[in-house]
Amino acid sequence: MGMPGCGRQRAKRPNSFADFLVQFRWVLIVPIVLPLSFLFYQYIQWRATIRRLIHGPPSEEKHRQAIKKVQDRIKRRHPKLDGMICTARRPWLEVSMRHSEHKRSHRFEVDLSHLTDIVWVDRERMLIKCEPMVCMSEVSAAVLPLGMAPQVLPELDDLTVGGVINGYGIEGSSHLFGLFSDTCVAYELVLVDGSLVRATADNEYSDLFHAVPWSHGSIGLLVGAEFRLTPVKEYMKVTYSPVTGNLDDIANHYLESFRPPQNDYEEKVPDFVETMIFNETNADHNRQVCFKRRGDLQRECD
Ligand SMILES: Cc1cc2nc3c(=O)[nH]c(=O)nc-3n(C[C@H](O)[C@H](O)[C@H](O)COP(=O)(O)OP(=O)(O)OC[C@H]3O[C@@H](n4cnc5c(N)ncnc54)[C@H](O)[C@@H]3O)c2cc1C
């Protein structure tokens, strides 16, 4: 939400060097940052492809070997001399809202960057098991061709499985499935003593299972996660409803949009709901309902 009256404000004139840099940031972003980002993504993708060619397809055994590196590193930590444990991921790569100041102080960093495999996809049980550095774009690329998607698929491609569990992940389907962590059925964690545990909602580590979401790595290092998939259909009908009013009106309309729209095909709750807030008095809610066949969508629109 903008500050009151910000919709009526004129664009600020740059009055300091910082303002100037903000206003003309495109001068750096378009010719320099965008090409560098493109090259960086190419590098990441090629590195993953080459790694796969060398090491072969993912398997539980390779996953165990990858976890062992993490356990070995943690076992080398001296509890009194070394600092507290944290991931070695550089702050500039993180999308988290959390300040990574803690990484500047004395910390015992554990590198998880080799944990990049989708270990398996189980089509029968509609489950997928991923290592923590698998990012959202890789999850969707692996399961969409199979007619499935994660129940909650945070839209930023760069978000990692480890990040959306230990931080948070939310998306337009969260009114049905909750946060990303609510779709998880098991976590593999390396604890401070280097032991590996598999925590589920009903095993002896169920307390850890419930504590991991939003824990920012304070429970242990997440080295694997199993989460639910859902079947996806090919077509989608999107209904936009503009809203004008105060914050209460916008919030009430948002809540209303979770209900099945009148005369909706199959009278169902929308599969996705999203809202764009343009300023303090104007928003646009959109409901999205998936359809299996174009014909069904056509009938609905007629
Ligand atoms: C501009 C912006 C836009 C955003 N948009 C969205 C959005 O559209 N949808 C959405 O759902 N969220 C969004 N977020 C929030 C984002 O999903 C969360 O902040 C998420 O935690 C970041 O994930 P990451 O992969 O960058 O993880 P990181 O930032 O690397 O990690 C998040 C936290 O988890 C810890 N952690 C990560 N991996 C592990 C591990 N393997 N073991 C133990 N601890 C670990 C890290 O130490 C850190 O504390 C947005 C955030 C920003 C800043």
Automatic annotation (TrEMBL):
Its main location: membrane. One of its GO terms (biological process) is steroid metabolic process. Keywords: Membrane, Transmembrane, Transmembrane helix. Residues 54-232 form the FAD-binding PCMH-type domain. GO terms for cellular component: cytoplasm; membrane. It is found in: Membrane. This is Delta(24)-sterol reductase. The lineage of its organism: Eukaryota, Viridiplantae, Streptophyta, Embryophyta, Tracheophyta.
